[in-house]
Amino acid sequence: MTQDPTLKTSRLELIPSGADHAPQLWRWMSDPELTRYLAWAPHVDAEETRTVLRAMQEAHAQGLAYHWTVFSDNDACGVVSLIDVRRRHRLWELQRAEIAYWVASAFQGRGIATEAVVAVIESAFTSLGFNRLVISHTTENVASGRIPRRLGFRYIGQEQQFFRKAGVWFDMNHYELLRDDWLRRRGVA
């Protein structure tokens, strides 16, 4: 398993997230609308963003999670991650991770998230050695749910009242994609 440091598409560059991205990302990570369905609150200052990005950089370096800052025309516009990485559980080999993503509102509707997720899927299956990827989204976040369906993920179900944020319970839809299915679709397997 090798770790791709930077991922590139025809329009985007995905660079492992680090504290040096804080000046560009802080403006988005402080947006209450962006964070509405995310697991974190809007950042109160650039130092909070820098601290989070430092932790992401450390997790990436240790292989505990993988985080890339998405750049479009040299503008940091989002983050795509492989989180909840589970390589093994006792005798079971799992090789699974969850794809998490967000794109700043000013960049939404351009296919940036989909394009960035494709690059991360490719890296996850070919370089990082994962066998299964999952994507989850709140039922209210319809736009986020289009990405797994567009990319051929199988819908595997809905968990009701999956999490509570600001006193409101949210349901979560779950999707999965296996390495063999991805390779077959690409004509590799």
Explain what you see:
The chain has 189 residues and is of the alpha+beta class. It has a single domain, classed as 3-Layer(aba) Sandwich (Aminopeptidase). Helices cover 30% and strands 38% of the residues. The protein contains 5 helices and 8 strands; from the N terminus they run ββααβββαβαββα. Helix 1 crosses helix 2. The two termini are 19 Å apart.
What is the element layout, followed by pairings?
Layout: E1 7-8, E2 12-16, H1 22-29, H2 46-62, E3 66-72, E4 75-89, E5 92-103, H3 112-126, E6 132-138, H4 142-150, E7 154-165, E8 168-178, H5 179-185
Main sheet makeup? 8 strands, mixed
Within the CATH hierarchy, at the fold level, what is the topology?
A: Aminopeptidase
Per DSSP E runs of 2 or more residues, the count of β-strands stands at 8
The radius of gyration computed from the alpha-carbon positions, rounded to a whole number of angstroms, is: 16 Å
Distance between the termini: 19 Å
Which second-level CATH architecture applies? 3-Layer(aba) Sandwich
Largest sheet: spatial strand order: 1-2-3-4-5-6-8-7
Shape estimate = globular
Helical percent range? 25-40%
Residue runs with pLDDT of under 50 for 5 or more positions: none
